[in-house]
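Table 4 source record.
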Amino acid sequence: MPVRTWVPPGPLDLHRTLGVLQRGPGDPAFAVRGGELWRASRTPQGPGTLRVAARAADGRVEAEAWGPGAEWLLEQLPELLGEGDDPERLTARHRIVHEARRRHPGVRLARTGLVLESLIPSVLEQKVTSDEAYRAWRLLLQRHGEPAPGPWERMRVMPEPRGWALIPSWEWHRAGVDAKRSGAILRAVRAARRLEEAARMDLAEATRRLMAIPGIGPWTAAETLQRTLGAPDAITVGDLHLPKIIGYALTGRRGTTDEEMLDLLAPYEGQRHRAARLILLSGRVPPRRAPRFPVGDIARL
């Protein structure tokens, strides 16, 4: 069981930095137990489980890992926790951004170095509610993933590319995943090797590589590369809620479009995703006027 200790280069909010990797409550590949975070991944060396804990007394991060991918996960640990990220490159142009950064100085952009791990759940989140996507991810991993190495029995590692390709159509249907999304995932896993190469590209090149797969557009590419690369400028376009939240937080107006959001974030060029994350952390969202969108279930059709 390999172990590693690492000292962050600055403040680190472990839970907010890694929390973006969790796909809803009950995610079989991510867990929080006490002050520890657990993550099960399929690395280039095979499945592995990582346990990470921050020691407040001296600022150290302690990590241990299990499985064939253990050494890879520990080697990747500093990048995962934002060693290559530089929050100071963002200059706050709005009071709300300034205040959010002051209140959350340890938020860094995680860089997993893994593409399919973030791409597949992002595809599942296309055009459906978060609850539907989280349910699909949970069911698919529970039925078709493999037990994660290490002591926590409930955790699962997502299938390898061939495992995804062998999931029968009725299992996608049972998980509530329509043919459009399952088709995009199947095309992606057939190109897994070339997609994983995007983890070593810059944002523009990686975006082009992902969007070469039919069914993967700008929204999915941005959601993936925010996590894979820790890309500070990978702003999500095409989201149902984000433009409205950004617009309301910065102007107090409702109904902001994608184009208007990009205009508002133009002063943060190069750091637009980081600015958006800070705005979301501020908690300033437009009051709800309509009931929550109902959750669909195609598995019953």
